[in-house]
Amino acid sequence: MEEVEVVVAHSQRATLRVGDVFLKIDGDPAHAAVEVRAMATVPVPTPPVLWHEPPVLAIAAVRGEALGVLGEPSPASPAAWAAAGAAVRKLHDAPLPPWPGTRLDDLAAELDTECAWLLASGVLPAEVVRHNREIAEAALRPWNPVFIHGDLQITHVFVDGDEVTGIIDWSEAAPGDAMFDLATLTLGHEERLDDLLAGYGDDVDREVIRGWWSLRSLTASRWLIEHGFDPDSPGCEFDVLRSRLRDA
Prior knowledge:
Layout: E1 4-9, E2 13-18, E3 21-26, H1 29-41, E4 49-53, E5 56-60, E6 65-66, H2 78-92, H3 104-121, H4 126-136, E7 146-148, E8 157-160, E9 163-167, E10 174-176, H5 178-186, H6 193-200, H7 206-226, H8 237-246
Antiparallel strand pairs: 1-2, 2-3, 3-5, 4-5, 6-8, 7-10, 8-9
Helix pairs in contact: 2-6, 3-4, 3-7, 4-7, 4-8, 5-7, 7-8
């Protein structure tokens, strides 16, 4: 009999693993709908969809291991990171999805709201919040939209040796800023950016990527805290924010 493993669980969604099958249960059926549409469209390896009966989406496991986890050094080779970069480039060169992405005005408003919460809560020194808010300004500019994954965490890219075998969790896929995907994948692993760009190409704006490192960490922290995660774990979001001040 297969054991049931809880991969992630919070008030919005849960993912269970039973053998080689992942069952994703989401309170918002739109998330799974986007995920299914995106995986059927993108020119990169994705998990096979086994069935979809809202609110449950069943997908098959992909071969290999994740590039790494937040808070620990990535065990993947430079060539594996370059392969990941090449896959992300294929995604960004694909035709745009037909559904809308995040508006710049909404993003700026969210940043203001979350920085105000961080300052009022005192979970981080005010100097850290304000300094990163200034850095985040670099990301708040008009961009030419591309097909982005939208949540390209290091745990969502799987490799076997130097081959990308699958990219998972597509519920946030949408038109958006290419630099956001690159920043999300290297969040907490900034030392691997050059390896990633060896496959992606160097036509990037590193200042904007740094802006997204700060912006994502600022805007994600309250959600993480309220859903049982710890952004203050070693190498995670709070460390990313503190490191920006140390580098100043």
